[in-house]
Every structure is written in structure tokens, then in C-alpha cells.
Amino acid sequence: MELAALVELPDAGRDLWAIFQLLRRRCAAGFGANPISLQDVAAYQTLMRRRLDRWEVETLFAMDDAMLEQLASDQAEKTEQPKPASSARRRV
How many CB atoms lie within 10 A of CB 6? Predict the structure, then answer.
């Protein structure tokens, strides 16, 4: 679900959310999600002819860190093996 549909974002938040989504969709993913790099941000600024303020870049990285942490947590939950009901050893 789209974040903007869940909460009302302030104007600056809407702009940053749109930039974050664009950069996140463009991140190469081999065996998992990669973080947004400084090169990604620099390329965005050059191509879009829009200079981001320092706080905007820091906010984008914080958003990306939170997303990557959540993805890692979700993946860890998926790969957890169910524990046996009893830890008693079987005797043969």
C-alpha cells in the first residue's frame, strides 16, 4: 500500500517520498536489496537538475536504512525453521 494513502504527508515529505520511490526502484538488486548510494543521489541531482539539501539526502538515507532493516527482518522471519515440539532425545 502506498504510504501517502496511509498518512497525510507534508509537502516536503511528499517530494522526498517520490524521490525515494524513484531511487529505490532504480537500485540494482542481485541477491537482495542494495542501499541507495551517494552515486545514485548525485546522478538524480544531475539528471533532474535539482539540488537536494543536506537534510533531504540524510532523510532519504534514513528512509532507506529503515526499509532495508524491515526487509531483513521480514526475510529472517520467513527463513526461521519451526522448532520441534519436544527437545527430548529419541531412543532407538
Answer: 8
Total number of residues shown for the chain: 92
**Structure-block grid coordinates of residue 4:** 501517502
Q: Grid coordinates representing 92?
A: 532407538
Q: Which burial class, exposed, middle or buried, applies to 8 when counting CB atoms under 10 A from its CB (0-12, 13-18, 19+)? A: exposed
What is the domain partition of the chain in residue ranges?
A: 10-26+35-53
- Global pTM? 0.73
Largest Cα span, the chain: 73
Half-sphere exposure of 84 (CA within 13 A, CB side): 5
Give the side-chain half-sphere CA count within 13 A for 63.
Answer: 19
pLDDT level of residue 32 (50, 70, 90 thresholds): confident
Joined together, the cell numbers standing for residue 19 give 524521490
C-alpha cell at 13: 515529505
